[in-house]
Every structure is written in C-alpha cells, then in structure tokens.
Model the fold of this input.
Amino acid sequence: MELTALRQFVEVCRQGHVTRAARTLGVTQSALSAMLRKLEGELGTTLVHRTPKGVAPTDAGAAFLRHAEEALRSAETGVRAVREIIGLEHGSLRVGGGATAVSYILPPIISRFRDRHPGVTFYVRQGGSSAVAAAVASGELDVGVVTLPLSKAEGGELIATPLVDDELRLIQPGGKGSGTLKSAANSKSGPVRGKEFRWRDLEGVPVIAFEAGSAVRAVIDDAARAAGVRLNVVMELRSIEGIKGMVAAGVGVGFVSRFALRPGEGAACKSGRLTRKLALVRSNARMPTAAGRAFEVMAARPGRTDR
Done:
C-alpha cells in the first residue's frame, strides 16, 4: 500500500523542518525534498513556504494536510480491520446444509469454532443439497454441506472435502398413539420385528418421507425401486423432527439419519445399508476467507461427528 508521500508530507508539516523530518523518517534530506517537489508538481501548486528557519504549509498545503491526515487514519483503520479478520478476531461465515447437517452435524462444529473464534458470526441456511451447492457456487454461501456425488456442472464449480458417512435408518412407532419411538426389536405396532428390515416388509405401509427431489429421498427411492418395492408415501416433510413426530404419533414409518437417533434406535436395511457421503463444498472460483479456511480445517478433523 503506497502511502509514503502522504506520510512524509504530514511529518514535514508536523516537524516544520525538512532535516528534522528526514531524520525522524529515516530518509535523506535530498530524498524528502525531492518528494515535496514531486508532490507539488502533481498538485500544480506550492504546498510549503521554505524559509531559513524551516517550512510552513501554504493555504493549499494546509488544506491538503487535513485530507492527508484523514486518508492515513482511514488507511490505518482499514489495515487493522483486515488484520482482525485475518486473525479471526472479527468476520462472518455463511454456511448451508440439509436438515441432518443443520440439526446435527454443524452445531458441534460451529460450537467448537466459536469457542476458539468468538468474534466470527454465522449465518446458517437450511436447504436441499442442490440448492445449497448452487448458493455456494454463486457466492451466496461461503461453504455448504451436501450429499455426494455432485452433478457434473457442480463438480466443475465446487471443491468438495469428504466430511462424514451417514446411514439412513427406518423408524416406526412404539405403539399406536403412544407418541414414542422404539427400537425395531421392541416395537409393538411397526412392520419390523428386528434390528433390520427387508423392503418387502414395507409394501403397503404408510411412509412419512423427505420431500421429493431431495438427495436423501433419492437414496431411499432408488434402493426401494432396485428391490422392486414402491413405497406408499402418505406425507412429505423437510424437517427431521417433523418426520419423527409423525412416526411417533402412529401416522406411518419413516427414514432419518443415524445422527438423529439414539443408540439402538432404528432399523438398518438387511439387503444393503442405506448410506450416503456428506461433503463440505466451497467455490472453485473464489479464494476462501480466513474464517472459511479455518472452518474447513476444523470440520475435517477426524472424529468430529462420528459416533
């Protein structure tokens, strides 16, 4: 940042003497005199009166001095602000993710991040993987948590860092109208009587599902279709807690992430576990902010979300 001429001019006016100013600035008197002549040439007027006893600003010099001091103060404020952001004393981070990420995966990561960098504020947006990926690519979000794989277009615009492997598990009511969920082995009213289920167990069974078009819904529908079963979807929701509430009320069965369940809760698919890979994505076209880089490092630490 080239502000040398302004700093030197302000110091000359402050000292009222070129020689003393040169000594303070650590430059030669001739270099400082040359700077003054160059500055006056650029402005087209005399900035200081030169006398045997020293120098004093002209009217034009006094006016320029006020603006030079203001410019230096503003520049110093800007430098401090940048250093504070680089040092993560201040700043912000815009993060997006699906229901599982926003409700269960991101909270402990953000909590640890803010313990270390309390000056950084967060904006968190919940949405489907495609919407989150598009928002990161456009710059609306700094980072996002999405389900892999990325589409061909998204793969060219985003950098993905694997975050965690997730499993989708079947949940069912603990008893009609009981308002509770039970493990599959203990369920009194659900279609499954063990720790695993077969797709044919769900034929004709009401299913509370994630909204159509979402990545997590695609994982479930594709697996059921491959097994020759068409799910009887009676309700679509975006909220995990909403699905759990409807299942607990006896409306039907549902699928949710293992992160949303207690140990032993939910049943795995016997013919092949319903798994998906979640990744942290950022734009390939923009350099990450200091907060974004630090967040990526913290999120990628082993054991940060696995149970």
About this structure: The chain has three domains: 4-86, 92-164+278-299, 167-276.
